[in-house]
TrEMBL record:
<keyword id="KW-0808">Transferase</keyword>
<dbReference type="Pfam" id="PF00672">
    <property type="entry name" value="HAMP"/>
</dbReference>
<dbReference type="InterPro" id="IPR003660">
    <property type="entry name" value="HAMP_dom"/>
</dbReference>
<dbReference type="InterPro" id="IPR010559">
    <property type="entry name" value="Sig_transdc_His_kin_internal"/>
</dbReference>
<dbReference type="Pfam" id="PF06580">
    <property type="entry name" value="His_kinase"/>
</dbReference>
<dbReference type="InterPro" id="IPR050640">
    <property type="entry name" value="Bact_2-comp_sensor_kinase"/>
</dbReference>
<keyword id="KW-0812">Transmembrane</keyword>
<dbReference type="GO" id="GO:0000155">
    <property type="term" value="F:phosphorelay sensor kinase activity"/>
</dbReference>
<protein>
    <recommendedName>
        <fullName>HAMP domain-containing protein</fullName>
    </recommendedName>
</protein>
<feature type="transmembrane region" description="Helical">
    <location>
        <begin position="12"/>
        <end position="32"/>
    </location>
</feature>
<keyword id="KW-0472">Membrane</keyword>
<keyword id="KW-1003">Cell membrane</keyword>
<keyword id="KW-0597">Phosphoprotein</keyword>
<dbReference type="InterPro" id="IPR036890">
    <property type="entry name" value="HATPase_C_sf"/>
</dbReference>
<feature type="domain" description="HAMP">
    <location>
        <begin position="315"/>
        <end position="367"/>
    </location>
</feature>
<keyword id="KW-1133">Transmembrane helix</keyword>
<dbReference type="GO" id="GO:0005886">
    <property type="term" value="C:plasma membrane"/>
</dbReference>
Length: 585
């Protein structure tokens, strides 16, 4: 069907396929890659945010736990914890309390997130530092006792501060054991952290980060969150909470009525807390709008430039060719008044001038000759053709070649010489076996003729190993493969077609590879021209009959184009006679 398409349709399809479609696909490709890159960068930033906040939080936890561990070894704290109530008037005790007061004053001023500190001695006497608070911490005492000297972190719980009113605190409680008798408790310590101030400390660089960060317990209660109303309560999204507690993957994409979110999590070592970072994918879409606009503008500009180029080329070339085609049809209908307007000296203009000149010569010739004389000449020509034998045609071609050289038409002479070689190979003998070098000479002459016809659209390379010289092969067995590449592999190929032929010895066999960089071999063409497909099938059958299933035509894997390998025996005259005897030739 494509061979019957007009030039206008072909050019429109060419414009759509090779200009419009690639431009649109390129635009979508850029947009897609930008989307993927932004999403990957968002996930990377989110993980970085999680890790950074985790490091800060773990550093705080370690620092606070170190304070409680310091109390076990420091003499002032040991004096406070072990002094009986009736001995609190002693100077040693008062100096110890003074040292403890200085220590915690420094800690409270250095760490704004520390709300208060509570110390309780063995006999029940206590010290308090920081803001005064009221709240039920009985459960924390029981949990600390169960910890048997290990620091135990609480969830967020509500208290009433004499300074700020109601707020949520996080505390670490610890039973302080005797340094020398490690199983004997001598006191208790509780260090309280302000949840809101702790979050602000973690999010000190929030303006440079994407998304938000929060911490929940293994039971799903919020410990730290940018929204203070969430702290101390169950996280409001059960689906997200369940994934944070039980999910195996460290990242998660989930949808809510408010949008789509990317979430990452990590368990905080030494606690029953889980840190979670969330980013709204809708924020990423906003960043994509600029990319999308740039891609859209680029596609529009490229499309308009393509349309302008299409219009210019159509007006300056295609339209003139269509006009020339129309006038040729007029000549076909015996209208010898046909003529084309020539307003350019380019190739199409020269073609138009030659057409006008040809029509005038034909008209003049018809006017000067009688139909009877024309018929007589046709009869004489037919008689002459019937008397020509192949050797006469070959000799005539040779004479024309030398005449062309004498007239300095070197290219024409070379073409006639190549055609003579091809013709001589066909009429040389009826034997189906030829030397490999003769077969390669024939195919080289054939390719030279095709190259002259196709110009820069075709090139070829033929390489032969010296070890395979003098071996016999089937006559014209390479031509079907080469024809298949040219007629099908290079059809509408947007680059120069290249055919590689290499002959060498391998595994005690003769291997001939025919490789092209076209669309690939299509041995069953769906057009009316089935010659090449039949020729390939015929070649396979001939090789199979002559040499058996061990030899034949083998397709090769290739990233570009197509490739076949002829696997043949290394034939000399003696082996050929054996094969001919077996096949009955």
């Amino acid at each position: 069907m494509r061979r019957h398409w007009g030039l206008r349709r072909k050019f429109v399809i060419l414009f759509l396929v090779f200009i419009t479609l690639p431009t649109v696909l390129f635009g979508f490709r850029v947009y897609y890659q930008s989307s993927v890159s932004l999403n990957k960068q968002a996930e990377k930033d989110l993980v970085s945010k999680l890790e950074k906040n985790e490091q800060i939080l773990l550093s705080i936890i370690k620092n606070v736990e170190s304070m409680t561990s310091y109390m076990i070894y420091d003499q002032d704290f040991r004096t406070f914890f072990t002094t009986a109530e009736e001995e609190m008037h002693r100077l040693e005790y008062k100096n110890a309390v003074k040292g403890i007061n200085g220590y915690f004053t420094f800690q409270l001023m250095s760490n704004e997130y520390i709300s208060s500190v509570y110390l309780e001695g063995k006999d029940g006497h206590s010290l308090r530092f920081g803001e005064p608070i009221k709240g039920n911490e009985g459960r924390l005492d029981r949990v600390a006792e169960e910890g048997e000297g290990a620091p135990v972190w609480s969830h967020a719980y509500r208290v009433t501060s004499d300074w700020d009113g109601e707020k949520y605190l996080i505390s670490v409680s610890r039973i302080v054991n005797d340094l020398n008798r490690i199983n004997d408790p001598i006191g208790k310590v509780r260090i309280r952290l302000d949840s809101s101030k702790l979050f602000k400390h973690l999010e000190a660089n929030a303006s440079t980060q994407t998304g938000h960060y929060f911490v929940v317990t293994m039971q799903g209660d919020v410990v730290i969150h940018h929204n203070p109303s969430y702290v101390g309560k169950r996280y409001p999204d059960p689906k997200l909470t369940d994934w944070a507690i039980n999910g195996e993957l460290s990242s998660y994409n989930y949808e809510t009525d408010s949008g789509n979110y990317l979430v990452v999590k990590k368990r905080l070592e030494g606690t029953n807390w889980i840190s979670v970072a969330v980013v709204d994918e809708g924020e990423l879409v906003k960043e994509l709008h600029n990319v999308q606009g740039s891609v859209r503008n680029m596609v529009i500009v490229l499309f308009l430039l393509g349309m302008a180029g299409f219009a210019f080329f159509y007006q300056s070339n295609v339209k003139r060719i269509i006009a020339l085609t129309t006038q040729i049809k007029q000549v076909e209908n015996a209208n010898f008044a046909a003529s084309v307007d020539v307003n350019s000296s380019d190739e199409i203009g020269k073609l138009g001038m030659q057409f006008n000149k040809m029509v005038q010569n034909i008209k003049r010739y018809i006017d000067s000759e009688y139909k009877l004389k024309i018929k007589q000449k046709e009869s004489e020509l037919k008689a002459l053709q019937s008397q020509m034998d192949p050797h006469f045609l070959y000799n005539t071609l040779d004479m024309i070649r030398w005449t062309a050289r004498l007239e300095n038409a070197m290219e024409t002479g070379q073409l006639i010489e190549q055609l003579s070689k091809v013709f001589r190979m066909n009429v040389k003998n009826d034997n189906m076996w030829v030397l490999l070098e003769d077969e390669l000479a024939y195919i080289q002459a054939y390719l030279e003729l095709q190259k002259s016809r196709m110009g820069d659209r075709l090139d070829f390379s033929i390489v032969m190993d010296d070890r395979v010289k003098g071996h016999l092969v089937m006559k014209q067995m390479l031509q079907p493969l080469v024809e298949n590449s040219i007629q099908h592999g290079f059809k509408q190929l947007p680059r120069q077609g290249m055919i590689y032929i290499r002959c060498y010895q391998a595994n005690a066999q003769l291997w001939i590879d025919v490789i092209d960089n076209g669309w690939g071999f299509q041995t069953e063409d769906k057009t009316n021209d089935r010659h090449t497909g039949y020729a390939l099938n015929n070649l396979k059958d001939r090789l199979n009959i002559a040499f058996g299933e061990k030899y034949g035509l083998v397709p090769l894997d290739t990233n570009e184009g197509a490739a076949y390998r002829l696997v043949l025996p290394l034939l000399n005259e003696e082996k050929l006679k054996e094969i001919q005897k077996e096949t009955g030739e």
